[in-house]
Structures
1.
Amino acid sequence: MILIHSGAVVAVDMLGQNYVLLSVWVESIPRFSPGQFMMVRLSEGYDPLLLRPFSILDAHEGVYRFLIKVVGKGTRAVRGFRYGRKVLLTGPFGNGFPGAARHGTIIVAGGAGIASVFSLVQRLHERGIAYELLYGARTEAELVLSDLLRPYDPIISTDDGSRGHYGRLTDVLAKRIKGKKAVFACGPLPMLAAVADLSLRHTIECYVSIEARMACGFGVCLGCTIIDGAGNTRRVCRDGPVFNARDIVLPGVC
Amino acid sequence: MTLKNPIIGASGTFGYGIEYEKFFPLESIGGFVTKGLSLRPRNGNPAPRIREVPCGLINSIGLENIGIDAFVRHVLPRLEGADTAVIVNIFGSTVDEYVELAGKLDRFRRIDGIELNISCPNVKAGGAEFGKDPLVVRSVTAKVREATDKTLIVKLSPMVTSIADIALAAQDAGADAVSIANTYPAAAFDLRSGRPFLGAKTGGLSGPAIKPLTLKLVYDTYGRIGIPIIGVGGVTTVEDVVEYALAGANAVQVGTASFINPGTADMLVRELAQYLAGRGIRRFSSLVGTAKK
């Protein structure tokens, strides 16, 4: 399988103040599983030097979409990308969500975390597999994908009550977790820790997708190494980014 | 050890070689150098381990590696079919450890060379400390030389008063080549927290930012030693390869550039052939050191 791609920008859509939906046409049409990511080069020169890892939001007829939160020099540059701009991409890399093809999955997405579970939701929906999607953020303004998610019936919540359920995602999860077969989650670390804690207390399998700074994306730079519960090294890029919550140490989980 | 072309994957950026097989056939490049291996596995430094800066990357991996035994047992057999030079980078915290490592590797036919890492800025014991004093370099190189008949390459630290004197010491002690150089000690600070970005506080700088610095070190060393020089520092384009040759490098290692595009080393082999053919240059070696003549 080809892992180094030359892509071309087909659309740059601003979603609110801080998010960009980047659409890139990739001729080689790489296959991917939900939860995998690609490395995308955001500059033509050496500043920023490295590619950035982004979850593949979805892909349709060779157009790959990435939901990008604007946080620094690299991601700011994306806002100025023009139609037709050439973009180097590598991947898809990493392990996606496992065993997704069964009924009774609950998917929990906090903020930008929706990017790594979106294609999973799409696939479950297409195959008629029963699932529940919880989508939450601090405020309504950060629920940037709610329009795209409409066909998938998300249960929405905000920390400030500006939209949907008033409260934390995990409060919503606590009310709905009983009887579920698996929990798949992506979002900020404290949220993932709370989700994992809740799932493990209900003895429900929980998989979390985590984020890390990385230079290469394919397991050689060792920049994204974490130490797992057994004291062994795990590379987020290659051994993750989706981990069984039992195997890794999330802050605040015993 | 003879290389089929002067492009080598650099230690610390090329994994154990097998990670690159999905990008290009390893036999296309002259060779590669493994991640630095120690006697026992190492977990490395605390996160964060990398910090990007303009045109460069600061890392403080701290020599995380699977250990020499796991390497020879699980990785080496998988390299059996690859027609490329396999160079194993070794790291010890004492001279005895370097000797033991070299001795363990000596009996494996598949290993073409050993690169002695006496220049890592990210570890407390050993590392760059061994690379600073010509007498220490001479002694550690000589002891490893006795333990192995493999091609012996010494990877030098850039942070020395006279790199040519250090290279000379390595040569006198029996080294077959020198790699010039490792990363440069570097730091970056977070204005929000007021603290260093890296978990280990400081790290080593690599990437295009260091190319002019390392070119100067190669240039200074060329002509002072008789053994080949391998240039390592910021090689990203075919022009960089040629520039290193002009300065005096017989071969180059490609490091951080493989993070930007994992196919870089393979691409450079093809682009270098085109570059030379396009200018009627029959042998890469005819360029070596010409800037100094």
2.
Amino acid sequence: MSKVAAANVKQPADQPGNQSAGAFPSIQPLGEAALVLSCGASLPVQRRLWAAWHWLKARHGDVEWVLGMGNLTGRFDPLRLKAGKIERALEAAWAASEGAADYHGKTVEVPVLYNGADLATVAAHAGLSTAEVIDLHTAGSYTVFCLGFLPGFAYLGGLDARIACPRRATPRLKVPAGAVGIGGEQTGIYPLVSPGGWQLIGRTRLALFDPGAESPVLLAPGDEVRFVAVRA
Amino acid sequence: MTLTILKPGPLTTVQDMGRSGYAGIGVPTGGACDPLALRVGNLLVANAEQAAGLEISLGGLCVRFDQPAVFALTGAQVSATLDGEPVAMWARVRAAAGQVLALGYAETGARIMLCVCGGVDVPLILGSRATGLLAGLGGFAGRALAAGDVLPLAAQQPPQGAAVVRAPGRGGVLRVLPGPEWPLLERRVQQGLLSLPWRVGAASNRMGARLEGNALAHTLAELDSHAVQPGLLQLPASGQPILLLADAQVTGGYPRPLVVIQADLWRAAQFRPGESLHFVEVGVKDALAALQAQRDWLARLARMLAQVR
């Protein structure tokens, strides 16, 4: 392993002493048909939210529960369910998640052919060689905070700050499915052909979203992702 | 049973009530932008509530009924002809095999629904036939319809009697509730949002209406990604709000000053580029009463139309 790849990469949110996981969140209405619980984004908080999300999905199937970064929204039919009931469910889920802050999902290895059109741009911005960028990208362990933006798109935490890179000044009209990119301090995989402004560093053949599959998405909140460089 | 697209107009897609239950994996609900027009259209042709129809942006559609069919046009006001003869909107209409329905361009409003007895029978993808244009999901090959497309219709006993309903009134106002960031906005910005007319911009689509007007300078930072939904008003740093519609992405990050009430979501989808709208603040009780009144109206229509099958 190269010196760069061996660097110990820690997310700020993962530092011991972060107290935000215990902070009581706020619950606010989002119109008459949704309530959102917000607690601020950090990995410890997000671990509790994953647990709360599963807890709520198992008990309140008539509500659509959507995870964000440090928040959790319940959408419901306000003529069938009272907002007060949803509020109490969110409070109960948050309380029940206290001991579940060590929630971990599965680990997914994502094979990547690092030949993206913007790999050289990212390297130049970082003042590194393309090989060093690849080493840093594959050295990290990434956590799926939540899904959104596109079906199956995972918001990943854990990018090494040294290879963070601003988005392209002009977004591409068509980014291919499986493209692996860096946008600001985030990295991610485009699950579908779509417009996109991230710097593309490579591509995976894994299907992130398959609507016909029993489980339509590859990645779930709480999963760990590792990128593995492949030759073809 | 089929329907052949001769001319699609600017944008015609297969839509139903959308796919609920998949927001957690990043799949928007989607479905008809004007769900009221779809529900009434389906009631007029004796379809199940979840049957799919065609959503036509602004008009211009030309279709051929390949077999005898019963159809209804609802939503935005448009002139339509069947083999050259004018046909009424918000009414049950019969077409003989081979007849051609041609729409002009909407006089007011943005989106017309065409519901056909039996419903458009494209495959269910994640529980819905709705076309998700961004993801290329569902509908007819995941895309907008094109000339030459042949859409399958499910076989169904056609209703017998005549039926017509009165179009719901639209107006230029959307009722809103304060969103999470409302209290954080300066009074000047709050007053601006509620007192200024907002014109729907040309860059609007099924994901959202871009509102143009006096830009409201504000100092709210962008937020951590959170769930968004149709009817939510986003306020980017530019001060030009975006009103999210049916195909809104699952998550967003802009401040959320206002939320359009559920009963007015269909209205929000019927403002066309160039039209102006006003927001008026109401309370949660008003929102629930308006939604209840709308459901009661639909239930009455359903009972009435069940008698003319």
3.
Amino acid sequence: MNSPIDIVVCLKLTARPGVADADERFAGVSPADQAALETALVLAEHSRGSVTAAAVGPVAAELALREALACGAHRAVRLDAPSALDSAEVARQLEGVVGDAAIVVCGDYSLDRGSGSVPAFLAHRLRCAQALGLVSVDHTGVVDRMLHVVRRLDGGRRELLTVPLPCVLSVEGSVARLRRAGLRDALAARTTNIDVRPSAPMAAHAATAVVTPYRPRARTMMSPGDPDPLARLRALTDATGSSTRGETVALEPGEAAERILRSLREWGYLD
Amino acid sequence: MLAVIPVRDGVLPLGGGEVAAECHNRTLLIGAATRTAAGDLSGRVCLAEVGPFQPGAWANAIAAAVIDPTGMLGLPKIVVLPASPDGRDLAPRIAAALGWPLFAGAISVSASSVVLARDGGLRMHTHVPPAAFVATLQPGVRGTDNITAAPEIAEIELAFGLHHDATVDGVLQPDAATIDLAEAHRILGGGAGLGSPQQFSELAEIGVALQASVGATRVVTDRGWIGHERQIGTTGVVVHPDLYIAFGVSGAVQHTSGLGHPHHIISINVDPFCPMMQLADLAVVADANAVVHELLVRLRPLDPLDPLDPLDRAGASRE
Amino acid sequence: MSDRTQHAANPDVDVDVIVVGAGPAGSCAAIALARAGFSVVLLERGPFPGSKNMYGGVVYPRILDELIPRWYDEAPVQRWITRRSTMVMTDTQAMSIDFRNDAWAAPPYNGATAYRPDFDHWLAGHAESAGAQLLCSTTATGLLRDRSGAVTGVTTDRPDGDLTARLVIACDGVNSFLAKDAGLYREVAAKHYTLGVKETIGLPKEVIDERFGVRGREGVDIEIIGCTSGVNGGGFVYTNLDTVAVGVVLKLPALAAQQLRPEQIIAKMKTHSAIAPLVEGGELKEYSAHLIPEAGLSMMPKLATAGLLVAGDAAALCLAAGIWLEGVNFAMASGMYAGQAAAEALRRGDTSEQGLAGYERRLTETFVLRDHRKLRRAPALVLSDRVQHRYPQMVAAVVERMFRVDNPDPKPGLRRILAQERKRAGVRRRDLARDGWAGLRTFG
Ligand SMILES: Cc1cc2nc3c(=O)[nH]c(=O)nc-3n(C[C@H](O)[C@H](O)[C@H](O)COP(=O)(O)OP(=O)(O)OC[C@H]3O[C@@H](n4cnc5c(N)ncnc54)[C@H](O)[C@@H]3O)c2cc1C
Ligand SMILES: Cc1cc2nc3c(=O)[nH]c(=O)nc-3n(C[C@H](O)[C@H](O)[C@H](O)COP(=O)(O)OP(=O)(O)OC[C@H]3O[C@@H](n4cnc5c(N)ncnc54)[C@H](O)[C@@H]3O)c2cc1C
Ligand SMILES: Nc1ncnc2c1ncn2[C@@H]1O[C@H](COP(=O)(O)O)[C@@H](O)[C@H]1O
């Protein structure tokens, strides 16, 4: 067997999406980050390696790190920084923690920002290979310093990749279920020392945004090719992105079911 | 503005045409069989025929070409890629190589404003961008323009330096398990509003009765309640049903952009104002879990299930 | 966090004490023990203390003076209760006794509305800073026992999840699995429980201030009889800063018999002309339900057995006696006394049932059991059919006739009205006298 492999897993603590005021008590890491942690732990088990959990953020982020320690991460590093950094900046901060680690595992996108760009920024800084948006990771290759993974493409296609180490991976939440921390480990993790490092000096940036509820953009469409005039009309009217197209009703569940079935009959989907 | 579109085997990625249109038809196609893909575009198209996807190598080469004053790309200040898997993976590396900021997952991009979908696609962040930046455009939000003329094609040589990339061993065509979804005329979609995996087995039963396939949002596939191959959306399967019934789906842009244009949409949600309800022909404000149950009872009349007992309800809500 | 030893003095066990449940009872027990220098593990099944806990909305934290002096400077309070109403209603009438006390708006205060996720989280924070080890997302699934039957620890739902201790304090709330597992309850019938359900309704603070006639941090607490669609029970309306809690407490057998759903009962109550103007136009934020141990003394389990103490709702110490709905203060007090008694027993090295007798003694000497003794007949009385169905009718009718102006007829005498309305409501004089006497003995 080759030398042990050091693995870094990047965890981001986010408030529950949709919850307006970011209350840290309700915060957690995304399913994707949980899957990343499990992937890192299994890779380490297959290679006698060690796992470092890293988070960029304020003290609250240690919640995620302690959970990682409880699950078996060997050490934890928090880069002290405000929570709303842009992705390039997060990657820059993380670079210092990664050092000589052979594998960095991230979630494929964070719940709030959802850019999925931190891992690619990190790979660029580290000048190493990346394999992002993975739906499966074969752990056996790790001893040969070659990972065989499956990446999701569009249209339901998937890509088989061989990734040389060092590399940055990002995984989808469905890749692995995070193990449940043992009782003693969970207790011990409460007081394990977390290595807190001041953040590297931050690049000034001004990403102030106006925040509004999501509204679909007006779509431009090719002129409808459908020979049916009604369908053409429909395509055109839908294309304006007009928001309300139907009726809204508040009903008890039983009535709701009746109403749905009635509409399905009217529209010809049911006899 | 320049559209940078990664091409695989002569096929444009999801959202490729929209990015070209957003950039007023100034496009760089990079990848394999780019000339074939150019047939779906108009305007000025540069082709970089460089083989399989290699984000590390490509990013540096593209960045060099973008800032090359003698090059044929015309010194664009705004580079836009589709937020398809390849585009999303490539864009940050191009941005980093250029030292320009990245706006990922935009709904619209122009020199004066960039609108991003954030918080699970439920909110929009509108930015006034700097002079030079890179963005990815969410597929399905814009639509494409009519192609009026054949593209004006030029080939471009990119300079590759030393790089590290993964090697592509092959591409798997869509899972047999998802074929039915991609081709289904009727789809039942389950979202985070459904409370447990149990509802998805009930949904499958309803699917049998209505001759519909079952799909889900990413929140659900991430939880492992249904296979990831059943995820509907721009990063999952893009579907084109006639009928879509959404149970507890908020209607995030990444989901609805992969929905095609159903003739009929029914949405069941407790929030009457979420985007899925706005899109629906019939928007029902109700608990989707209970509605699933009631539908099942009605579609399976031989086996009526006991109504909930108040004591059970009390017990259940203690959990 | 204090640097006090994290490990048990006795090397054969993991910790000195395991407290199960980080509700008000558990946190107070943990504070008392950790301050006394013992190692404590506080287990909570929710992701954080209070995350899943619900109640009506008013706490009376006086008892905290002992554990957290000047708690009122830091506790996460919504409003200070300065106005209490007791309301009797029929479908179309309502009569209130309304009391306002300006002194309750200043330290040391009396009651306050607070959200449980805030309050429990805050209290558990004090347990942690006292040195207790709080472990969330962890459910105690059973008790460990030695050959003699003495409790020696708990099993949990985590891998490698057995934890041993010299003493376990069960503060796991109503329907305590641990107290039952230890055989401390004789039999627990459904009739001993009421079901509490509550809606939290969002309204702008200024609107609440105006509708309830309060300002600043002043708050209102309204208890209601006769608003439960014929199901024996009671209702309440409490003000938070920018939400109003509207709820009902329903007797379980009656609820089952009437075939009504709790949310229907709340919906009906909200349409009553005495309630509707208070909550109109609000946005429903939350609906929740929880059981309440209602029968007080008559269902109280044994409070201790070798190696185990039970406190708070787990010991059925909630006081749900009609116009009183107090549980959090009883939970905090019993938790604290359990912690003190446990510390005493541990110091003496005797955690047998006799060694733990200091707990029940403390409860007997203080309001915890005194109030329960005194009000032991209250639940039965308040939830009796007469109080529930006949008296509201009668009282409303009497008051209506007193205030009705029937000129040119002269005003009738009160005595006559009383007698007529008593008959009309079908209340026998004997019962009225008996209930009056019971009420006096109970509440007097
Ligand atoms: C790069 C990227 C790619 C993505 N790709 C995809 C993709 O391909 N496909 C996809 O689906 N998502 C995708 N997402 C995720 C997407 O942004 C949303 O987070 C996701 O679609 C939301 O799923 P949801 O509607 O199930 O959950 P939520 O947004 O949490 O919505 C749940 C809905 O259920 C309702 N609800 C709650 N309880 C009930 C109840 N009892 N009864 C009825 N309704 C109830 C709520 O009101 C809400 O509207 C992607 C995100 C990113 C960042
Ligand atoms: C509708 C309603 C209205 C009420 N209104 C009021 C009011 O206005 N004022 C008032 O003072 N009281 C009120 N009460 C009563 C009050 O809520 C309770 O008496 C009080 O919460 C009891 O506190 P406790 O600590 O004993 O239990 P709880 O508050 O129930 O706490 C028990 C804790 O233990 C945890 N737990 C349970 N089992 C386990 C396990 N196996 N392992 C680990 N953890 C576990 C739970 O998650 C919880 O955090 C009301 C109750 C109801 C239902
Ligand atoms: N502040 C952070 N600290 C640690 N890891 C992060 C942070 N932000 C993002 N990441 C990682 O990058 C992934 C993608 O995030 P994003 O690019 O924000 O969508 C996440 O799933 C994490 O693994």
